[in-house]
């Protein structure tokens, strides 16, 4: 989401008015395709038994295991048949209203560049691996696909209400870093987790973070960190339930109530929390004193 400082205020040279650019698939070098393949293999090995059923199904039906950086046109064609979504390329982060407008119209904006070989484990800006491997499989799920459309519409409304900060937290703790309780156990579905070698284990298996049952208002009050693993993960019972509660709730009065209350710090436990795992916070503590 475009809440960073390095967002331009108009489309850069060569981009359309809606900020999209050609993906220019034929311009990727063999070395760039090799970076994708390396990242893909590493994650694909890790994710069975860790990623949600819906995510793994998406990976499969979209044929993302085909070697090389996916061609957005080919990918969009498959996705379009399943849920009506498309993937379009943008030069990097785009302004919030542009992001929401695309989303509300079933266009997922993806960076077309790929990280360098020395950035396999970490980079701040979303590249094609994060955007496509991380996000796109979930777009093949009809319920999640509808959730993101509703989120795009909700974003346009939040902008008018001056409540973007609160809505952005919902995106962060679901779309980017969400966990789901499946019959076989806890699973990851957030793109920031499934696209990260280290966090896909940390989020599920490490004793450090808190894992708390998802509650809409609680989540929208909670700060988050963009520089390291989360100290808090929120667990939804199902995608149906996530869609239901977000669509059925009118956010306007909720925003007002939230704005009148203090934010909740990243690692805090709130009085009404249903805590699934009390985190030791050892990881964050060791990092802070290192
Ligand atoms: N129901 C929300 C509103 O009233 C819109 C929304 C739906 C936001 C789904 C996020 C996800 O603004
Ligand atoms: Fe993302």
From TrEMBL:
Q: What is its EC number?
A: 1.14.16.1
Q: Does the keyword Iron apply?
A: yes
Q: One Pfam family name from the record?
A: Biopterin_H
Task: Name the enzyme's class.
Answer: oxidoreductase
* Alphabetical list of InterPro entries matching this protein: ArAA_hydroxylase, ArAA_hydroxylase_Fe/CU_BS, ArAA_hydroxylase_sf, Aro-AA_hydroxylase_C_sf, Aromatic-AA_hydroxylase_C, Phe-4-hydroxylase_mono
Which SUPFAM superfamilies does the record cross-reference, listed alphabetically?
A: Aromatic aminoacid monoxygenases, catalytic and oligomerization domains (SSF56534)
Q: Which UniProt keywords apply?
A: Iron, Metal-binding, Monooxygenase, Oxidoreductase, Phenylalanine catabolism
User: Biopterin-dependent aromatic amino acid hydroxylase family profile domain: which residues?
Assistant: 1-290
Identify the domain of life.
Answer: Bacteria
| Pathway connected to this protein | Amino-acid degradation; L-phenylalanine degradation; acetoacetate and fumarate from L-phenylalanine: step 1/6
Cofactors needed by this protein, per the record, are: Fe(2+)
Q: Under the GO molecular function aspect, what terms does this record hold?
A: phenylalanine 4-monooxygenase activity
The UniProt family comment states: Belongs to the biopterin-dependent aromatic amino acid hydroxylase family.
What NCBIfam families has UniProt attached to this entry? Answer: Phe4hydrox_mono, PRK11913.1-2
Name it: Phenylalanine-4-hydroxylase
The encoding gene is phhA
């Amino acid at each position: 989401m475009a809440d960073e400082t390095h967002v331009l205020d108009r489309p850069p040279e060569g981009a359309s008015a809606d900020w999209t650019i050609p993906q220019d698939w034929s311009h990727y070098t063999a070395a760039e395709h090799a970076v994708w393949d390396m990242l893909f293999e590493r994650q694909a090995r890790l994710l069975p038994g860790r990623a949600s059923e819906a995510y793994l199904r998406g990976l499969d039906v979209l044929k993302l295991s085909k070697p090389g950086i996916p061609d957005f046109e080919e990918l969009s064609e498959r996705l379009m048949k399943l849920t009506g979504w498309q993937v379009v390329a943008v030069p990097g982060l785009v302004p919030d209203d542009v992001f929401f407008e695309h989303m509300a119209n079933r266009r997922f904006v993806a960076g077309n560049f790929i990280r360098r070989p020395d950035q396999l484990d970490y980079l701040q800006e979303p590249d094609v691996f994060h955007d496509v491997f991380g996000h796109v499989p979930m777009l093949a799920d009809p319920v999640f696909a509808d959730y993101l459309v509703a989120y795009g519409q909700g974003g346009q409304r939040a902008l008018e209400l001056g409540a973007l900060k609160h809505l952005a937290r919902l995106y962060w703790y679901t779309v980017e870093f969400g966990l789901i309780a499946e019959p076989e156990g806890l699973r990851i579905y957030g793109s920031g987790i499934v696209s990260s070698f280290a966090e896909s284990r940390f989020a599920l298996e490490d004793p450090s973070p808190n894992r708390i049952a998802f509650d809409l208002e609680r989540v929208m009050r909670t700060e988050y960190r963009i520089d390291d693993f989360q100290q808090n993960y929120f667990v939804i019972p199902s995608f149906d339930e996530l869609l239901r509660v977000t669509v059925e709730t009118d956010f306007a009065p909720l925003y007002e109530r939230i704005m009148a209350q203090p934010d909740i710090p990243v690692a805090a436990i709130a009085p009404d929390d249903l805590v699934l795992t009390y985190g030791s916070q050892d990881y964050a503590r060791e990092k802070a004193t290192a």
